Amino acid sequence: MVELMRRRGLPWLLLLAALAAPFLMSGYDLNLLARFMAMAILSLGLVLLWGHGGILSLGQGLFFGLGGYAIAMHMKLADLPGGSLPDFMVWTGRTALPGWWAPFASPAFALLAVLLLPALAGALFAWSMVRRRIGGTYFAIITQALALAFATFLISRQEVTGGFNGLTGFQSLFGWQLADQKVGRGLYWLTLALLCLGFIGIRALLASRFGTLLGAMRDGENRMRFLGYDPAPYRMVAFGIAAFLAGLSGALFTLHAGVISPAMVGVVPSIEMVILVAVGGRMSPAGAIFGTIAVCYARDFISSSFPDLWLYLLGALFIAVVTLLPGGLAGLVRQRRA
Amino acid sequence: MEGLVLPQLFNGLSVASLYLLAALGLALSFGLMRVINMAHGEMLMLGGYLAFLTLSLVPGTGGILLAVPVAFVGAALMGALIQLTLVRRLLARPLDTLIATWGVSLILQQAARDLFGAVGVEVRAPDWLAGSVQLGSMAFPTARLFILLATLLVLGALALLFRTTRAGLHIRAVNQDRAMAAMLGINVGRVELMMFALGTGIAGLAGVMLALLGPVTPTVGQSYIVPAFLVVVLGGVGSIQGTTIAALMLGLVSAVAQIFVDVSVAQLLLLLFVILFLQVRPQGVITTSSRALDG
User: Fold this and answer.
1) Domain locations in chain B as residue ranges
2) Fewer beta carbons under 10 A from the terminal one: N or C of chain B?
3) Are A231 and A224 in contact (CB under 8 A)?
4) Domain range for residue A70?
5) What is this model's ipTM?
6) Residue A228 within a domain
């Protein structure tokens, strides 16, 4: 009975608690939780791509950023009285809106950009790599360069990207005032719902033929080739899905945090996204969600009270997880059960 | 235009030599162990700080000549420590090595911040390194010429090591066929340790060179490490020639690109160049042919 509770009851209990959180927490704490849940959506993509696909991306920040900037650009434009320019453009002396900004004024376009742009960019990039059988360490390093180039580009083009400070100071989304507590709660529930959907979707994908083949290609690429499977399209799709989830995560995170900046999309945040997943368990969607939220809380707590200590701890965490706990916390739970 | 192209070409050559010094160690260990040390940039940083310490104790020309072996040995020892405690244990999992060595890099950066402060330290180079050599209408900064010379010396020393010494023979043997080399009685573990330490030692040397060009900061390695990674990818596995050609290509591409666009766009173009190049030659400039299915 206790065993049944632990296996079947716990997820529902957690979900119930998560649903009720807006009535139990302060607005500040709820906002933190919502941000971390948004990050967990990105982690789900890494479970598919890295855990099961064996492809390590150190550049998820790029796709996170594409989603985040897309929604941020829309909010910047939507808040403006017609014809005027976003604040930072005025400060940097621009007199006209760049052409590629203009379509983001439309909510539909911005939403489509959030949903499609990261996925398409990811799939296109991945295709150029996997079709030439570039994988493993090479792939990881090139994705890291991608994150670096993206962040550098954002910083250097201050007059159209907001530069180092990024985009911030949003007031409303699709006509809802962000400062309104009800809107905050609504966005939290939206994030929770999307996280649950992502969780169910990734679990279904992993259990499907696609998931099995992806894992087989990770373990025995040449055998799969001899069996007549070309890994390239599978890997491209896995990367595209991970990029899609990263974009969605970036957009939601931007809504909760009220800011998106190069400091959230570059090399360092990108590799931290990997450690979030590694701690929870790279093979387990539930582990990745739990690990992400736990590490994010730890970072929030420790880095605000002991900022110097945090980097030592984070460094030690990177080392300890891969040497001592390659399966993450989820691997530990599985061992206990077995 | 001509007046702009020639200095940029020299600039490219000088950048290429730094990329090469930073990438050589990475490429050597990657060829042997198929792992990339993400803390390699911090070996540059370590070399830079060791140069700073040496030169503040012994100023002048003697100091810079002393800083070179000090930085080499210091970084090599740190590398040996990383290899023994981490890399060796993770050999079968190259992606995990990336993550673990990134952890090392974070710790070393924070340690440097605590020891030397977040703001950079300035190395006082001897006066003859601060000037420039006039050739016709062009001036070549002496420090950059010095770096070019040092890079050539390192390449020459490596060639001698690989071609003429017993240790070099062992390294080449392990590089070609690890299992066979082990069966013939070569201590593969020791060769790998030596190689890793040698690679980080060269990065330490590169750190001294960086210290001649600008302040040493806790994150000084980070600005060179991603291009160095790209050099390794472009160069092909385990070949010094390939790495050298790749460093020259990337150095020149980025210098020439900077004639037309600014640094950040040049960085994008550099990455695009690497991705496009890999479409044509996915295994890099120099490919070693092998019958092995999983090379």
Assistant:
1) 24-221
2) N
3) yes
4) 30-264
5) 0.86
6) yes
